[in-house]
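User: Structure with zinc ion, tokens only please.
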Amino acid sequence: MPVEKSDMIVTVLGSGTCVPSIERSSCAVMLEVRNARLLFDSGPGTMRRLLRTNTTIFDVDYIFYSHFHPDHTAELVPLLFATKYPDMSQRQKVLTIVAGVGFEDFFAGLKTVYGKWIELDPGLMEILQMSNHFADSRRLKDFTIQSAPVEHNPESIAYRVTGAGGGSVVYSGDTDYSESLIALSTDADLLICESSLPDDYRIKGHLTPALAGDIATRAGVRKLVLTHFYPECDKTDIEQECRKTYDGPLVLAEDLMRIEL
Ligand SMILES: [Zn+2]
Ligand SMILES: [Zn+2]
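Assistant:
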């Protein structure tokens, strides 16, 4: 049977930032593609949000990191430590960590602090680094992954996942206005885009609703999901701000929201 586009399901695990919030956990998105479960970022609180979707850490096949800020990576240490309880036997498959070049150094730094507490048995964890300077791609078992550097940190990359049925999801990570994000998102079914602050609060290295809408319009995406909301976003009509530049289907992310393609 041909694989349909609806074989891709997005669950927003954390629609927030570094700011502690009951409603908005730090950044994380789960994407289910066929039998694979992909995490995009793992900010603090991700494991508990995963449990709310009946997913354990042992079900996760891939973690894709957009960059290394703590609100996107901090759950990696407790996740690996928890994988060792009681003896690593619950992880039956490889955990592949995908990130921009620099991740191996970042992880080596974590190991100088945590040592064996975050080391898994040989063969249980792999690291796949993608270019942080150029567009890059890999054909993996259940999907294809493309990446592009974006405007935030030196290691920052955005990802596009294309399933066997042709459906495509782009995850921006944190970024300022980015031509390479537009190129990566061209004609995507779904763009999950950061929209950190309202238009009047714009800061370098981040997007606002109108800028995210402009990127979505120029890329011709079929649906736009705004996420990564600082508290100011919840006091502003960000939908109206986004509508200045984008008139397609629009979703404002909330934790545990499910979006099927
Ligand atoms: Zn960041
Ligand atoms: Zn962030």
